[in-house]
Amino acid sequence: MRCFSIFFLLIAFSLENHIQFVVGDNTATISTTQDEPTTNTAPDSPEPTVETCQADPNKDESKKPDSNDNPQETLDEIPKQTEPERPIQSGPLVDLFGEQLLSLKMVDETHAQLETHYTNEILAGKKVIGVYFSADWCGPCRQFTPELVSFYEKMNAKRGKKDQFEIVWVSRCRDVNSFGQYFTHMKWLALPPEEAMGKRGQVLGELFKVKGIPHLVLLDELGNVITYDARNKIPTDRAGIGFPWRNPLAQLYIVLVPKSFRLMMKSHVDGIKAQLSGLIRKNK
User: What is the pTM of this model?
Assistant: First the structure.
């Protein structure tokens, strides 16, 4: 009888080990990003790939809760999970960029994950906002982007001005995959690719006088243009001594006039511009 017990224990142990091996193998297969068989030769320069956030895997609802374990908890008493409501956003930056912006978080050396942020929240406290028009297929863009990354980090490390400079990339890439690959070389935010390649990207290009790329415009916290020519100012002022290269009168205006009053004046002026534009189109 003891021999049979040992025999069945050995069978159970073997089955348990087999099941664990299969689960581990499936996990490895899921986490593998390349379909080609691995070799001992490392790739020359693995290009990071972008993965979007995935929802939680489907939960197994076939198992009903045991009322004997917790008689006070039933399926009817479990609150239904609903998606959090989007905050109502308004303001000049939302008008420019839309309600959401993207950032990129590197998971490991070959994986990255896009994260979504509400525009007003992610740009809160930023004193200077760059609008960067660039593409992966553009040689001058690929040359300027690393220089801009270095300048961006240097300005945000300045004493008394830490993390007050942000950039929003408006992609001129030809497809979403190229957008993702090129985004891995940047440290800032981006307009969603469908927005950048759509109507909003076109409107921003016209608004900020984009004739060629790379093109970098600097805005203040209310969306007013500081300079259209930051692309050419950075190479001549790498230390950022004159950054953000404001007009002296504009600098004096910002120092003396409170932000709330400047925002009210901007809204008033924008309203007058919209009325004039409407009258001009109506009379044509």
Answer: 0.63
DSSP 72-122: T--GGGSPPP-PPPPPP--SHHHHHH-SEEEEEEEEETTEEEEEEEEHHHH
Q: How confident is the model at residue 218 (pLDDT cuts 50, 70, 90)?
A: very high
Nearest to 98 by CA among 123, 135, 132, 133: 123
Give the span between the Cα atoms of 195 and 171, in whole angstroms. Answer: 9
Per residue in 28-54, pLDDT (tens digit) is 332 334 344 444 444 444 444 433 333
Sign of the dihedral defined by the CA atoms of residues 34, 36, 39, 43, in that order: negative
Spatial distance between the Cα atoms of 75 and 21, rounded to a whole number of angstroms: 35
- In angstroms, the CA 141 to CA 162 distance is 26
Task: Give the dihedral of Cα atoms 157, 163, 165, 169; nearest 10 deg.
Answer: 110
Query: Tell me: the pLDDT tens digits for 227-249?
Result: 999 999 999 999 999 999 988 77
Cα–Cα distance for residue pair 153/262, rounded to 1 Å: 29
Which residues are CB-neighbours of 165 under 8 A, at least 6 positions away?
Answer: 126, 127, 128, 129, 130, 152, 155, 156, 244
Please give the DSSP secondary-structure letter assigned to residue 274. H
